[in-house]
Amino acid sequence: MSRMYFISLAVFLLPTGVFAAQTKIVAPASFQAAQSLVAASSSPGNAYVIGASVVLTAPVAGDFSAFGGSIITAAPVAGDDLMLGGSISSRAPVAGDFRALGGNIDTTAPIAGDLIAVAFSVHDTGRSGGSVFIVAGNTTLSNGAGGPVTIYGNNVALAGNFSGNVHVVGWGHLALAPGTTIHGKLSYEAPEPATIPSSAVIAGGVAYTNASYLPNVGTSRILAFASIGFFLIVRIIGGLILAGLLAGLFPAFAETVLNRISKDRVRDMLLTLLLGFAILVATPIVIVLLALTFVGAGLAILILILYALLLLLALLYAGIIAGGLLMRRLQNRERIVWHDGVIGMTLLLLFALVPIIGLPVVLLLSLFVAGTLLQLFFQFAFPHEETVVDITSLH
Question: Quick one: angle between helices 217-249 and 251-263, nearest 10?
């Protein structure tokens, strides 16, 4: 399977004229590029066009190569077709091979040579005189093929007269239309048997391989653990980045939090910790009570968002505070820089892995920081106005 796939891709990528005789006299090639391009003049040799929208309305005496968002060929091509685009439609005969890579590929005219297509959807009603190789999500061959057929994809529908063998590897459903004739052998791999009507004729017989692409229990367990590990790694990296950004973008606020924590007495520290614990426990209860009322549902959503934001900031600033305290002790530096947050968050996450005491200590530190943040936010929202007494007015 893999060998056939890579060989076909290699053939697809080869220049269309690579197998031409060396003694053949080649006419001058034409090159066109534009945003919206209509090739209305005949080309005596190979034609190469690039554009967001490409329409071929004049015959090409050689090969035709096109790259664009939408490609339509409405004139015959005497050589090979090579197309790369989002939507590809071949509405005129092709005397050589047809190779296409795109989103949706539709061929309605005969192809004398081979048909090679890689796309999300392939619909062929023109019939290829040579071999057919298709890799697509959904494939429909409505008029058979003159050579062997190999299809990799999801849902596959076959109809018409097939002169050679047909091999299908699919993870969806294979269906044959009534009256379909396959002069060779039909071999296919799929999760379920194909729909083969009684009027279909398969001269070489049918070989079915039951292929289930769902993972077994062991594979599912491995994938689950790998997904969890990847998710944890992403969370750790995201936490480090956010801590570094907060410390680097808002160093003054981080220094304010650090200074407040450093100057707090033991009694104040206990009160701050109790405040953080109260917020952790009481807020979900308040949210549930508000959500039970029609009027308070919107307020409950707002409080929930603020609650989640406070917990996130508490964890991030706990790492920043840990890094700031460490740098003050090691480097005697008062100012906080971005890498203090990264270092502190790393130490905090590593300390959380310590059995028994790791997570409780990190939780207590986060609750203490949450209480401190809440006090700072409250003071910012409701500043205390200091009363200044004029001594001269007392006389």
Answer: 90
Between CA 207 and CA 191 the distance in angstroms is: 14
List the alpha helices (DSSP H) in 189-216: none
A 10 A CB-CB count for 282 gives: 10
Indicate whether 261 pLDDT > 50: yes
Give the range among 15-19, 118-122, 187-191, 325-329 with minimum mean pLDDT.
15-19
- Residues 6 or more apart whose CB falls under 8 angstroms from that of 146 comprise 127, 128, 129, 130, 163, 164
Say whether pLDDT at 330 is over 90. Answer: no
Judged by DSSP in three states, 392 sits in helix
pTM here?
Answer: 0.54
Residue 192 to residue 200: CA distance in whole angstroms: 19
Distance of CA 246 to the CA centre of its chain: 28
Is the pLDDT reported for residue 15 higher than 70?
A: no
Does an H or E element contain 391, and which? Answer: none
**What CA–CA distance (Å, rounded) separates 365 from 318?**
6
| Average pLDDT rounded to a whole number, residues 140-146 | 94
Is beta strand 186-190 parallel, antiparallel or unpaired with respect to 47-56?
unpaired
Centroid of chain to Cα 159: 35
Q: Which residues pair with 38 in a beta bridge?
A: 55
Do the Cβ atoms of 203 and 182 come closer than 8 Å? yes
User: What is the tens place of the pLDDT at every residue in 237-259?
Assistant: 877 788 878 888 888 888 888 87
- What is the per-residue pLDDT for 351? 81
Residue 203 pLDDT greater than 90, yes or no? yes
Q: In terms of DSSP H, where are the helices of the chain? A: 2-13, 217-249, 251-263, 266-291, 297-331, 338-351, 358-381
